[in-house]
Amino acid sequence: MSKFKFQQAIKDVRSQREKVANEISMLLERESKMRSPVGETGNLRRNTNSEVEHNENQSDITVGTNNVEYAEVVHEGSVVRNITAQPYIRDSIEQNQGTMQQMIAKGMTPK
Fold this sequence. Notes:
Helix content is 55%, strand content 13%.
């Protein structure tokens, strides 16, 4: 295999990884929004999002809720405030492990 073909193969694999990571990010954002508790304003659901950061060797997916002060208390609960945890983000990740593994296997299969 020539050096050019090898470099192109590396680029292709990176592109596939980035595409799969973006798709997983969208899945987790949708699932987290669907599972988030909705109060009077819908603020928690509306502000739940995801982002992907790609670098040379990996892609990192972050799912969370921005600019909602009470998001952590809702997600983790509070003994002091007698609030039961509603881990909508964690549940979205845990309950979609199989789907994510399938997406990775399908997306990273050589074409």
